[in-house]
From TrEMBL:
SUPFAM superfamilies: Glyoxalase/Bleomycin resistance protein/Dihydroxybiphenyl dioxygenase. The lineage of its organism: Bacteria, Bacillati, Actinomycetota, Actinomycetes, Micromonosporales. This is Glyoxalase-like domain-containing protein. InterPro entries: Glyas_Bleomycin-R_OHBP_Dase, VOC_core, YycE-like_C, YycE-like_N. Pfam families: YycE-like_C, YycE-like_N. Residues 5-129 form the VOC domain.
Length: 134
């Protein structure tokens, strides 16, 4: 089966503290918990899948006592949401209250949005621009 514009996307990341990361993405950004699992065996991780019902993408965070990989985000590990306008004026303080840290992602992203580091240090950009394939 070929990859199409309707192909579903999962972005998976390790997390040191699933509860803190979940709080950032749900209480801060407003994503829903789509699925949750606690690893019951030595080869299983705890995980939480976050997203919006019906969306073609979701974010999977894995953690727990069996996690052997530490999060290692860089300044280029960006998850960008194109809002097609400024973020709601209450969103930025809500993201900070939920554990996000406002950071610079460089001149381009600072000009076109606001960037947060999540509790594991991965960056979320709320871009004021609209998505364009051009």
């Amino acid at each position: 089966m070929p990859i199409t514009a309707d192909t579903h996307v999962r972005l998976a990341r390790p997390s040191r503290d699933l509860a803190a990361a979940e709080r950032f993405w749900t209480q801060g950004l407003g994503l829903d918990v789509l699925y949750r699992s606690e690893g019951g065996h030595a080869d299983e991780h705890d995980l939480v899948m976050l997203g919006l019902p019906g969306a073609g993408w979701h974010l999977e965070l894995v953690g727990g006592s069996t996690l052997t990989v530490e999060p290692r985000p860089t300044g280029e590990d960006l998850f960008v949401l194109y809002l097609d306008g400024p973020a709601d004026h209450e969103l930025v303080p809500r993201m900070e209250r939920a554990g996000g840290t406002r950071v610079s992602a460089g001149p381009y992203w600072d000009r076109w949005g606001v960037t947060f580091a999540d509790p594991d240090g991965y960056r979320l950009v709320l871009c004021t621009r609209a998505w364009s394939n051009d």
